[in-house]
Amino acid sequence: MSFDAGVPQLAAVAEPVRPSVAEEAKTVVVSAITATLASVGADGPWASPVDFGVAAGRPVVRTFGRDEHVTNLMRDPSASVSIVAAGAQVTLVGLLEEPVDVAAARAAVLAVEGEEMVEEDLWEMDVLGLRWVGGDGRTGTASGREFLAARPDPIVPVAGREVGRLNAEQSGALLALARVLGGCPEAVSAMCVRADRYGLDLAVGLVRGRTFTRVGFARQLDGIDELWPAMEELARRADAAEDGVHAS
């Protein structure tokens, strides 16, 4: 697995842990209902939107009737599936094959589409690798094995409202976190741009310019109800660290 972490901080970050590339990709993939499938035709690549789902952690796409993809995949199962979400894009590459469990694959697609077709073809991807592109210049690759083993993040898909609350109600605390735990002692403002099971991504205003930093929780979160207690614990850590600096 490789990961380009993006913008560097000004000083050491206390807890820089963040989701792995495979976890980032899995989080995007399990929330998707449509994707762009690219298969290899006799005259070159062919790409088009398809219905999408996930069964037992494996991507499933649905084509119909005499779709160009059906002809292509019968000849060459090599394919890519691209999924775009808010602030992220994932491209999976692998082999599209008949699902191991056809009923589960159909249920995965119907769960998000709610419409059964007579002349449908279901294809399950054996993921060989992926590339993930996130915000702030962060990109990375992961293997198919890492993708299959990864767990999607339970916080990212539902954190939007709580992130808004953090910015509205805890701007001072976020600034302290950026200065003390986020490696940005010269910060003049800080805004949370994302929360995940491991911590917070902060956009930090400096006297000259802007940067991004990371503040990690003491432990992984299992649900959105744990976000505010984790935020309170971060604030206590920042206060303790700041008191230690003043005492010395």
TrEMBL record:
Domain spans labelled DUF2470: 164-233
InterPro entries named in the record: DUF2470, Haem_oxidase_HugZ-like_sf, Split_barrel_FMN-bd
Entry's Gene Ontology cellular component terms: cytoplasm
Pfam families listed in its UniProt record: DUF2470 (PF10615)
Matches recorded under PANTHER family: CREG1 PROTEIN (PTHR13343), OS07G0573800 PROTEIN (PTHR13343:SF24)
Listed name of the protein: Pyridoxamine 5'-phosphate oxidase
UniProt organism field: Nocardia panacis
